[in-house]
Amino acid sequence: MEKFRLESDSIGTIQVPEKAYYGVQSLRGQNNFNITGYRLGDNFIKALAYVKKAATIANFDAGVISQDVSDAMILASNEIIEGQFKDQFITDVIQGGAGTSMNMNMNEVIANRAGEILGGELGKYDKVDPNDHVNYGQSTNDVIPTTGKVTIQIMTTELISTLERLYSTLMKKSEEFDHVIKMGRTHLQDAVPIRLGQEFKAYAQPIQRDIKRIKTALDDLRYVNMGATAVGTGLNADIEYVHNVVRILSEVTGIEFHQSYDLVDGTRNLDSFVWLSSALKVCAVNLSKMANDIRLMASGPKAGIAEINLPQQQPGSSIMPGKVNPVIAEVMNQICFQVFGNDLTITKAAEAGQLELNVFEPVLFFNLFQSIEILKNGVDTLIDNCISGITANEENCKHWVDRSVGIITALNPHIGYKNAAAIAKESIKTGIPVAQLVLQKELLTKEELDIILDPFEMTKPGIPGKRILKNKQK
What we know:
By secondary structure, the chain is mostly helical. 60% of the residues lie in helices and 7% in strands. It has a two-stranded antiparallel ribbon with strand order 1-2. Strands 3-4 form a two-stranded antiparallel sheet.
């Protein structure tokens, strides 16, 4: 039978599991906010422990906590950073109170573990107190936004690395497919020829821009409001602590942070998070567009465009034998749809703050962290299970070019718009290829056609067969 201890706060007394490192306020938060079924993520827990460690060091340096208490709190923080006590963080990711339950959950775990290190009992708080020691000189209102920014810096490192890998993979495919001529399409109608390699390079370029946009947004998120306490005025924080805590946070995390230029501004406004979310949304737009194109170009295999072949990952139907679907591109689309929705939630959460504090950071962080995580995971599987294994169906690509009237555009400077339009119309009506009709009507010779319709001539700037025009003008 589970044993309990009694803990009290300003609301009253409740039972807490005897061996729990969390305490009364954590348990109240769990009981009040049983919302999503998701607890605090590992990266957020680690980031919050970093913040508490930095605050402990800064407070000790300021002379407001003793050496033994400081050492015990730092040891407890390090244990949490290393991944211990994960099961002791019991609060839901979405909660009221601007994240007070999250903050107190960490305060209580550190206080109980540090007290235990000093020979105390769990729940007594006579050696180390959650508020008077762990939270000294702090408020949820500077701790939680700072923790969010530390978490984001940790998480986006992997996302950026993954996007850089995607860019590299797409550029390799661009080189691999540079010799493959295919039909370009606008409005889903035949346009003019293009090289498959050019298309894959065009998928790579926006990814490079996405990386730049995300990095730019991250620079703004290096400014944190630690030292602001409740509303940005720094009330009840030692002045030496206020001056040093962000520098120490940079040292313990290995990530460069700066104190907000205006702590009141840094406490009430969340626009930096919206900026990052917007960059992630733009990235998702580019990824979803690419996934759309991949699915379309791979359509078939016999009754579709079938210009590219995707790696076969799993059977596609429970009723149609042999059917294989573009599941990786499909899941990438769905991830992007989720990011679009998350961005709207983040926007609303940032907008809904009032006066000195925005209390909606919990839902903002839940959605922003999810966007970062699912984009990273989605791009990983897109690279490994789709892009890397794409092959060109060169026969089909050539087939569509040969059948299309789109190549008539390249002939326009040589035979005139009126002749070109008539041949296009006749080709569509009779099914006779454009090149054959041009030869039949003796508008150009076969040698001239071969020069004009050279794949690289038609897929680069300029007039295909320009020297033929010059010779005729002479």
